[in-house]
Known about the structure:
585 residues; alpha/beta; ABC transporter transmembrane region fold
Amino acid sequence: MRFTEIRTLLGECLRHAPGRTWLVLVLTPLGAITPGLTALGLQWLVDGVLSGARPLVIGGAVCAAAAGAFALAGTRVMQVQTDLLGSEAGPVLDRRIIRWCATLPTTAHLEDADSLRRIEQIRGLGQRTVTTGLASLFVVQSGIWLVITTILLAGVHPVLLALPLFAVPSILLTRTSSRRAETARAETAERNRAEQHLFTTITEANSAKELRLGASGAHAAAIARRLREERTAILWRATLAVGGLTLIGSLVFVAAFLGALFLTVQLALSGTVSPGALLLVATLGGQIRGQLDLLTHALTRSAYGLTLAGHYLWLRDLHAAGTGGTLAPPGRLRDGITLSGVDFSYGGPPVLRGIDLRLPAGATVALVGDHGSGKTTLVKLLCGFHLPTGGSVTVDGTSLTELDPAAWRERVTAAFQDFSRFPFLAREAVGVGDLPRMDDIGRAAEKGGAAQVFARLPEGERTRLGKALGDGVELSGGQWQKIALSRAFMRPRPLLAVLDEPTAALDAASEYEVYQRYAEAAQEWQRATGGITLLVSHRFATIRMADLIVVLDGGRIIECGTHAELIDLSGRYAHLYDLQASAYR
Ligand code: ADP
């Protein structure tokens, strides 16, 4: 039993629907004793009739009728009440899950398969988490009922004590099979996600275009089919295993029940027990079968629900743990940002190794290197999206982990190559770069080039973009990029401004124009706040303008200096520069 999970779920239910929760808590023990009372009532009734004892007949009839009626209705009422609790407390869990996911201090959970699996399993399932988690109460109910049944059977003959024991294999096998089903669900979650992703890729206009040009549509469809077949095979094997195990457990019990009935008949014939005892054993034995079904069902449901609740608590703890930082970032950078012995890995081999680097306040720094050399990863560490696995990043001497992550991010602005295409009104797609100043997009739209895009839209800046939220206008790659760049201009006084190849889809003239405008804005904030501008680019016309150029290779810094210094060094930078320059000669 996972008590923390049960306590958490009951706590939420008590907070949001106290009356209903108490009703369920009272019905739990009542539901446990009424089946036993029914069997006892029937025994009294039969013995009363046979011995002509009127009070026993009346008492037995009333007891059997009242308890029987409650046993029939009580379970149903409890089921309905737990479902209602799910619909009351579930949405609260859903809201928290979304908020926690959206405000986790780092984005590491979005790039880690295990975290994604957990989030996938609870996403939008708050209601199911509560209703299936509360199935634990049915498990408790059946447990109490089992104890009462054991005592009543022992009263007939001690050997009958063993009857409920024959339920144990069934319970154990059911638990094994529910774990097996859970493993199968977890195993298929990633394939499911990959298949959904492929489906989106196949049906989304942009990627569909590339798939057709590359004639790889059939290949993508074949991968999707393979994923589905693998998923079906895993679930099929699990279903067979679960069915087989459950059947074996049931057969063991049925054999024991028949033996118990035979023994009681012998005892009644020899006069050791009253004839009513036969009815008691038959009724209890018959209930064992039904109650056992309830118990196994409740065990499976609660195992699933408590696993979901476990994921919920994991996310809560992950969110609460944060990075621990509470300090406000400096209003103005005096020294700069320093990386000391920084290592990083996404869980596999190291991606950054022993990075020692000082980004001086007010400087423009360019990161250069082949694809996969670690440039974007370094940017993610500086933005605070990931924490280094070794070493430290300090801002004017204060570790980034000591700064309040949200406050740090308010002083960071970034435009990435894989920027988002927000399906909002055009002005909102720019304004979300700095929510509190959402209505003041004029300057940013001008500087990032969004103003030119607005001018060509049917309803100007009030035009809906993209197709995801309705019939919006689809923009070209370059137009989307201008929107993303303008978004990056929204923050007025950043301490760190990152341009991670956001101009890759622009032509050379537009890129030059963007960087010119960017350089102007950068000068403004570099003077005002000592802010650092970090450029990731492959175009040397842009790179050579930087005050400091850092060359990465295989996650290490291999060269670092000004353009002139690196050309003098005649190393990798000079070689790459020559290659690009000769292409223009
Ligand atoms: P660059 O920006 O220089 O192209 P990246 O920082 O994107 O390089 O990637 C550096 C290395 O880290 C590459 O080997 C890449 O495959 C790996 N990598 C990047 N993102 C992830 C991720 N989310 N999970 C695992 N590996 C990653």
